[in-house]
């Protein structure tokens, strides 16, 4: 059987797949960092070359937004979007695969145990920035195609690819590009995205929901430049003190959002939805142990899943403009910018979220009575996404997982955001499914990001099995 | 007259003094930064060489503390303290001059208009890190000695020097070194320190008081590593939210400290002291304009001087461990450290301040009810200093200033801290005077630090005149 020989060949070539992932991890395609932007371009070129070698017809589409203006006024070029087409047989179904080639910032000094841009294999884990998010899954698809070609097995479907390089910044220009190139999306029957994670470490899952993201910056400025705290302390209204206070007004100790009317926007929980949570295999203690905390905001596993999947959450990410180094600096920072974001859920709409956040922060700020200048900047939100897991397309995923792992997957949602999911659903009008490769402890966006060797290898087999299932729908 | 020929020669050699300052500014002797620590050593060697060439007998005293342990557990060597002796004539008075050779961190990216470690002359101003704090004044003394030697004028006093390289970190090891080497201090008649600034931009002053400093760090830790805010947002208690809240509890909008009993430690204002404030030439609007704010914490110039000089102030300097870059990163930081300090005044005692701050923060934290771990760390405080400006030594300073500037200086205090002032007063039992070279807008510790060419040149003349006045006491 075709699948079995593919699976055997994938196992056999394991070292090659790991070397390929190492090569891609070494390209520091950190999209949020100005100094690494050119590496994103390089990563796209590298991938195009690999795809072309597999007979995938590639097109680099210039980013419709052209450049990005940074907060300091400088501009940066935006990377192109990489389109690929493998097969145009009208008698075959067409799958669209999305992935991203950029990664989050990472530095050894942040607390990594190894150099983040060097893939290190240890205890069956492949440590490196981008290993699981999202270079591993992207290469997984290409590795499967190479394997099938090597074995002379005919591809039973057409596959189109959309790979971008700005996902970690909010996919700048991608929506516009896809809007402009609807022709590329025509004829697509299913969309599959592998850019999320299992709920746990053992059991695979299929994901049908994502939270959206509403990012914000609060900028507080006072004196025209940083001041000596000895000379000026006590005489001026310090922006940093205002900012800490203002940020402290957004949530309570239990991580509840204090912004008025946020809760009214959240979809009511139906009985049917409530029941889905009782069936899910979720190890609350394992979850706690992985993050290293003794206490969560609830001790009920169902509540925790709901807080991750169907409730909004607000996180303060950091402050720009204050002293952030080691050691001590007796400075009064003159202008500080607090960065926070709200993960939004059905039925929240980013524009409405922006409005109530701006209104709330402005009102709270008025109550502060500080003469400093405050600006609250909504940075462009993205909607949550909710798919329908009863569709045949999702069942193709279920069968693929059963074939590789021998278990029935859970249907899960994710707390994170992949805004393009919704774009693909809207533009194709077809079913979008998230088929994760990595495990829950992969630590995307964090120190020591990794992908298990087994997840990488079995993930490829799952992709192969899924390709055959798609052909049968 | 000796003074007049010295003054003329100082003017004539202006370019040489500026070149010398440029050379010293180019040495990145940033003591608070681990990566630049070796440059502090280099700056000390450079100064020793210059002093030796002037016939000053130098001794590099090994730092008694040996090494410093950084917050990440690594250790750094501490620079030696540089002692110098010029003349040992028992029939002459002996002046001790103190200065420091290290500087605050600086980077072009912080908002400097020019490269901070390259001295740039523009509009009569010498821009560069350390130009005014404290390389300009240190070189001022040495330039005067060189000038007098060049003119064949006999030095009417003995001069001893203590130059250190850890002032910007809290003078690590200096007190211990001076304690151990009391022999070096014996025979000293007066101590002069030029490491502060005029009250305004036009009128010179002599300074008789300084605030002390009590620095603190609040460390809040939750999960064992940084987390993805999508995956984990809403389920855990975020350390950053706790820290912002805790920092917001320390002051109110008007920069009043909310820590209980702090105010009870402050010396009562006497009628005599109150009167000194009415005589001082202080331009409140100029002060506002320089810092670029429309509103201060008081509109009364006397109140503002009191807030700078005789009242405590609390500043939040920044947060370590959160995202501090440009752009956006959807991270939940796992461990964040807030750095703040209190400028302390008579009669506050650092050990007592530490205790009430620790007690207050601990009590407030208990009320928060967060399961995260909080540590409040006092980082070693230093007392305020108050000298007696009625002493003849201060009158020598007055006469020197009258000779150079033709005006009677104001007697001022400073909001900043030079802990060693008190050490010298205690160890010598003699009068310590602060004789500033730079102007109020020199922006020490900030972007675009500068020293006016006129302040540099006239400051040298003032040092020369002061040397002759000391000989007459």
Automatic annotation (TrEMBL), chains A, B:
Domain of life: Eukaryota
UniProt-listed CDD domains: M20_dipept_like_CNDP
Keywords: Hydrolase, Metal-binding, Protease
Molecular-function annotations in GO: metal ion binding; peptidase activity
A GO BP annotation: proteolysis
InterPro entries for this protein: ArgE/DapE_CS, Cyt/Met_Dipeptidase, Peptidase_M20, Peptidase_M20_dimer
Keyword check for Hydrolase: yes
Domain (Peptidase M20 dimerisation): residue spans on this chain: 209-364
Pfam families from the UniProt entry: M20_dimer, Peptidase_M20
Keyword flag Phosphoprotein: no
Family indicated by similarity: Belongs to the peptidase M20A family.
Protein name: Peptidase M20 dimerisation domain-containing protein
Phylogenetic placement of the source organism: Eukaryota, Metazoa, Ecdysozoa, Nematoda, Chromadorea
